[in-house]
Design goal:
Number of helices: 5
Bound molecules: hypoxanthine
Number of strands: 11
Largest sheet: 11 strands, mixed
Structural class: alpha/beta
Radius of gyration: 17 Å
Shape: globular
Strand content: 15-25%
Distance between the termini: 20 Å
Length: 270
């Protein structure tokens, strides 16, 4: 079983892997450079979304290279993390939430592998954007470990890199959003197109603009991630232990799985 982990803000390394080496995976969108290692007999690659040292802002992340790279390497299951602002009083800073749906307010991002022409026109079903069995495993693992996890949450993705206005946050609440962030779209959509089992653990790092009594800052986000980062990686690794093919009965991999230019069996890994 091959598993990908995409680390968001505050999750820049995984110390649980053995025999770790740095690899390069070439994609039509540029190369990605994950760490490859082993955990409980499973092959795992870890990729920090914002690059080493958090040098890539949300609107410039090469989402297609990341998702294509994981698929080309052979990942079937992908866990990701996302630092978020909370729209709900009961999603307190430090809380973990397994995402269940999203609303997309991004503006300038390519959110498909299929650009028409030879690549075809593809309209991907996102009725269930995040893998339901993975969500259940993460939630159950949290219960088992005594790490409190909320079982569902609607993520609203903004373009960033600025934080939202209080008016935008109020609009999101009216629309049914629970959390705001800047990275989960198009990542989740591309993972769906690629036929990956994909799940996201959101970390509430702050009350969103206008709910918080103080101005927002990236430092505040990083501070909360200092302590929440360990819980989220523990939750992922313990969930990986429970991941077996038999528990994963869902439609994720029944989506389109032939990405443009991807020859199956050739991993394009250096
Ligand atoms: N808004 C958008 N993205 C975020 C926030 C927020 O309040 N906190 C952490 N990531």
């Amino acid at each position: 079983m091959k598993i990908g982990i995409i680390g968001g803000t505050g999750v820049y390394a995984l110390h649980h892997l053995t025999d770790v080496k740095e690899i390069e995976i070439e994609t039509p969108y540029g190369s990605v450079f994950p760490s490859l290692g082993f955990f409980e007999g499973k092959e795992v690659v870890f990729l920090p979304r914002h690059g080493k040292g958090h040098s890539v802002p949300p609107h410039r992340v090469n989402y297609r290279a990341i998702v294509y790279g994981l698929k080309a390497w052979g990942a079937e299951y992908v866990f990701s993390t996302a630092a978020c602002g909370s729209l709900r009083k009961d999603f307190k800073p430090g809380d973990l939430i397994v995402l269940s749906s999203f609303i997309d307010f991004t503006k300038g991002r390519v959110s498909t592998f299929f650009e028409g022409g030879e690549e075809g026109v593809v309209h991907t079903d996102v009725t269930e954007p995040y893998c339901l069995p993975m969500r259940k495993i993460i939630y159950d693992t949290g219960l088992n470990l005594g790490i409190p996890v909320h079982p569902s949450g609607v993520y609203v993705c903004f373009e960033g890199p600025r934080f939202e206005t209080p008016a935008e946050i109020k609009a999101c609440q009216i629309l049914g959003g629970d959390l705001v962030g800047m990275t989960n779209v198009p990542e989740v959509v591309l993972a769906k197109e690629a036929g990956l089992h994909y799940s996201t653990i959101a970390i509430s790092t702050n009350y969103a603009a206008g709910i918080s009594s103080t101005p927002l800052s990236h430092e505040e986000v990083l501070e909360v991630m200092e302590s929440a980062g360990k819980s989220v990686t523990t939750l992922i690794m313990e969930s990986i232990k429970r991941l077996t093919y038999s528990v994963l009965d869902c439609n994720c991999s029944k989506n389109r799985v032939i990405l443009p230019g991807l020859k199956h069996g050739s991993h394009q890994v250096k």
